[in-house]
């Protein structure tokens, strides 16, 4: 097989590897580092605890041996060491029972052994009363001390038991600047082993606790990193689909905040460019019809006409101009609305007074059509949002309801609250929306002919939809038995 094919197969196998989230990968790396650090620290500390404790013990034995050497000097010089006061004190010391509890470890008896040798290395006093008269001059503690050097040794009582070693530290007994003997203090290493074990246990326990805490912190940080990435990815995905999305904020990972700011800036620039293109295209298309009418009427007015016809074509120009003005005003309002990522201000809005005010605005239309407007809304019902935008949205819905209302018809407004959502239902008795138009009824510039044959700008319901989206609500339009039902659902305060 050629090297190229091997590389290709290797890459294909790599592509089939499961995708592991970045946060989990970071946590795995962090986990390995924590475990490795814990192992290295624990192994190092475990190695150092035992020799450190023994070094401290040896330092204590040195002080004790020198103190005893000073205390034993007079009796050794006078030859009364065996029957003297010092010997009695040493024997009494060996039989004491301290019954101490040192950091939770019991100490029922004295662990030190003390023996004194003369200038020849012969034991003349032993606190254990077992080696008196024996020659210890060959042992390093006595041999080195009698030569003026630091004397110490560690001897195992049982070669198969490493804990059976005994530490011996000697100090010289000096008289007239001459070494006349040596005091040796011995301590079994087994007596300090409980302290070594306790220290190891505490160190390992704290290392385990700190490692677990470090892993928990690492897991939280990895989770926050991963969730922040998902927020950015979701935000970018919504931007790519052209949906409105709130820019994510990051209090800890400010670098992600910089990236979200860059995405937001890019979104605005792309939205602005795309929106201008669509705006120009739609505005050009919609203005073409009234401009043609105005141009035709103006050309006819330049020819000899009767007063009635002049008045007719002048009225046509005025109505088409008003239509153009209305179209431009609504487009500008919709443009501003669509550029808002979220509401600029929010306030508590009592629904009943707002609907009554809208009802009052349609008194003339209701009189002309002999229509009735009914409102069923409790005075306590309210929502949170922009009062002006909500009022304009409700006004557009009622205005549309009047455009398709039958003569002597009825417009019903019913408000209820369910599970912290307020539902405003506006229905009329009029012509239903054709099935083919139901899915497009909120599209910009999509309009159905009214009863008089005229068409609207097709921006009213699109405006309503944008307002409801800004209020985190939902707009539903459906046919009912005798007309059309428009339902708006928004969260309560």
UniProtKB/TrEMBL annotation:
GO terms for molecular function: protein histidine kinase activity. It is an enzyme of class 2 (transferase). SUPFAM superfamilies: ATPase domain of HSP90 chaperone/DNA topoisomerase II/histidine kinase, Homodimeric domain of signal transducing histidine kinase, Sensory domain-like. InterPro entries: HATPase_C_sf, HATPase_dom, His_kinase_dom, HisK_dim/P_dom, HisK_dim/P_sf, Sensor-like_sf, TCS_sensor_his_kinase. Its EC number is 2.7.13.3. It holds the Pfam family HisKA. CDD domains: HisKA. It catalyses: ATP + protein L-histidine = ADP + protein N-phospho-L-histidine. The chain crosses the membrane at residues 20-41, 203-223. Keywords: Kinase, Membrane, Phosphoprotein, Transferase, Transmembrane, Transmembrane helix. Residues 282-493 form the Histidine kinase domain. NCBIfam families: PRK11100.1. This is histidine kinase. It comes from Pseudoalteromonas neustonica. The gene is creC.
């Amino acid at each position: 097989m050629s090297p190229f094919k091997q590389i290709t197969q290797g890459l294909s196998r790599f592509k089939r590897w499961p995708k592991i989230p970045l946060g989990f990968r970071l946590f795995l790396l962090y986990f390995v580092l924590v475990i490795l650090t814990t192992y290295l620290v624990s192994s190092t500390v475990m190695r150092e605890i035992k020799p450190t404790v023994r070094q401290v013990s040896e330092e204590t034995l040195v002080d004790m041996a020198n103190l005893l050497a000073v205390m034993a000097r007079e009796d050794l010089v006078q030859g009364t060491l065996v029957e003297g006061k010092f010997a009695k004190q040493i024997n009494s010391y060996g039989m004491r029972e301290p019954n101490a509890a040192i950091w939770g470890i019991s100490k029922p008896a004295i662990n030190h052994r003390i023996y004194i040798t003369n200038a020849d290395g012969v034991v003349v006093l032993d606190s254990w009363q077992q080696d008196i008269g024996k020659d210890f001059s060959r042992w390093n503690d006595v041999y080195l001390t009698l030569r003026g050097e630091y004397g110490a040794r560690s001897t195992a009582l049982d070669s198969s038991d490493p804990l059976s070693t005994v530490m011996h530290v000697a100090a010289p007994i000096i008289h007239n600047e001459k070494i006349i003997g040596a005091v040796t203090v011995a301590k079994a290493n087994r007596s300090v082993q409980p302290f070594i074990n306790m220290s190891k246990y505490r160190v390992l326990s704290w290392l385990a606790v700190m490692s677990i805490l470090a892993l928990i912190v690492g897991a939280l940080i990895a989770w926050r990193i991963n969730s922040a990435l998902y927020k950015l990815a979701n935000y970018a995905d919504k931007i790519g689909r052209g949906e409105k999305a709130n820019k994510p904020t990051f209090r800890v990972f400010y670098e992600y905040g910089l990236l979200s700011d860059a995405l937001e800036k890019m979104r605005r620039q792309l939205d602005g460019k795309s929106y201008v293109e669509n705006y120009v295209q739609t505005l050009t298309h919609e203005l073409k019809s009234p401009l043609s009418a105005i141009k035709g009427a103006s050309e006819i007015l330049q020819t000899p006409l009767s007063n009635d016809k002049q008045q007719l074509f002048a009225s046509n120009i005025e109505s088409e101009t008003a239509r153009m003005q209305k179209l431009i005003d609504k487009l500008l309002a919709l443009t501003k609305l669509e550029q808002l990522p979220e509401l600029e201000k929010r306030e508590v809005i009592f629904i009943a007074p707002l609907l009554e005010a809208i009802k009052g605005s349609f008194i003339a239309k209701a009189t002309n059509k002999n229509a009735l407007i009914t409102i069923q809304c409790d005075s306590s019902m309210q929502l949170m949002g922009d009062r002006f935008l909500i009022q304009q949205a409700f006004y557009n819905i009622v205005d549309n309801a009047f455009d398709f209302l039958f003569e002597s018809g009825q417009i019903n407004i019913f408000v209820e609250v369910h599970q912290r959502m307020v539902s405003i239902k506006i229905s009329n008795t009029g012509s239903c929306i054709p099935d083919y138009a139901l899915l497009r009824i909120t599209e910009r510039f999509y309009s159905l002919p009214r009863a008089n044959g005229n068409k609207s700008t097709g921006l009213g319901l699109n405006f309503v939809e944008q307002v409801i989206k800004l209020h985190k609500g939902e707009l539903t339009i459906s046919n009912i038995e005798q007309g059309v039902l428009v339902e708006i659902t928004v969260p309560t305060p």
